[in-house]
Amino acid sequence: MTKHLLALAVAIAASVGLAACGSRAETVGTVGGAAAGGAIGSSVSGGSTLGTLGGAAAGGYIGNKAGEEYDRRNK
After folding, report:
1. d(Cα 20, Cα 5) in Å, to the nearest integer?
2. Which of helix, strand or coil describes residue 28?
3. How many angstroms separate the CA atoms of 50 and 69, rounded?
């Protein structure tokens, strides 16, 4: 359990660092996507670190793009 929480914390911290340059919607999308992606990746892969980090990376990317699209439509 500790291994999974550590992997998720690392993924979220990395996403927050990458999202710091974007707008608020991009930041929220990136962090939210990374958290959800990490949780989904962990459950799908049976708790593997690689699955958790991969899910967090994919979720963060998708969330970032969703935030960009939100900003584009609501300017």
Report:
1. 22
2. helix
3. 29
